[in-house]
């Protein structure tokens, strides 16, 4: 079944308040473990409500992208309190030639961009992070 980007965007716009409440289901210690070593430029794909944002350390420069403006409205609040420098953009990760920055570490934590075209998304992420890989 082909799921459109608009469909995913609308769905996340609708469930954003619920998602914000559900963020607590992932234990802080897991986010700390995952993100405490992040440094330099980081691209977080599907940043959602920004639940990861407080866990990026000082010195990291994070660009968080997401399809859903409503999810991002929560992320913006968290970005104001962040230790890291955070910039948030509403965009689709899929047709993203402007994101071809191969040395940028990727944070893809619980991102359901993968609902859309899972294998294509993975190949793309891999290509960003590993420019010498061939497929
Ligand atoms: C599971 S939620 C957010 C998870 C968040 N990283 C966290 O740890 O709480 C997945 C997010 O991916 C976003 N998303 C889904 N498909 C996307 C796409 N093609 N481009 C950008 N964001 C996308 C959704 O809008 C949603 O906010």
How do the helices and strands line up, and which of them pair or pack?
Elements: H1 5-22, H2 28-35, E1 40-45, E2 60-66, H3 69-80, E3 85-90, E4 106-107, H4 114-129
Parallel strand pairs: 1-2, 1-4, 2-3
Helix pairs in contact: 1-3
The chain binds S-adenosylmethionine.
Structure explained in plain terms:
The protein is an alpha/beta fold. The chain has a single domain, classed as Rossmann fold. It contains 4 helices and 4 strands. Helix 1 (5-22) crosses helix 3 (69-80). The relative contact order is 0.18. The model is unreliable at 110-123 and 130-135 (pLDDT under 50). S-adenosylmethionine binds next to helix 1 and strand 2.
The total number of structural domains is 1
Q: What's the overall average pLDDT, rounded?
A: 77
In percent, how much strand structure appears in the residues?
A: 15-25%
CATH hierarchy class name: Alpha Beta
Counting DSSP H or I runs of 4 or more residues, the number of helices is 4
> In the CATH hierarchy, what is the architecture at level 2?
3-Layer(aba) Sandwich
Short structural summary:
By secondary structure, the protein is of the alpha/beta class. The protein has one domain (5-129): Rossmann fold, CATH 3.40.50.
Which labels suit this protein?
135 residues, alpha/beta, Rossmann fold, four-stranded parallel beta sheet, 4 strands, 40% helix, 16% strand, globular, disordered C terminus, binds S-adenosylmethionine
């Amino acid at each position: 079944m082909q799921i459109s980007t608009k469909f995913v965007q609308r769905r996340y716009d609708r469930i954003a308040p619920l998602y914000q409440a559900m963020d607590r289901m992932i234990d802080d210690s897991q986010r700390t473990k995952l993100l405490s070593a992040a440094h330099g430029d980081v691209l977080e794909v599907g940043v959602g409500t920004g639940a990861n944002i407080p866990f990026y350390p000082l010195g990291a420069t994070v660009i968080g992208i997401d399809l859903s403006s409503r999810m991002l409205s929560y992320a913006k609040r968290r970005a104001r309190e962040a230790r890291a420098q955070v910039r948030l953009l509403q965009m689709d990760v899929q047709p993203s030639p402007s994101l071809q920055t191969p040395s940028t570490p990727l944070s893809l934590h619980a991102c359901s961009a993968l609902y859309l075209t899972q294998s294509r998304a993975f190949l793309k992420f891999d290509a960003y992070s590993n420019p010498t890989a061939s497929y």
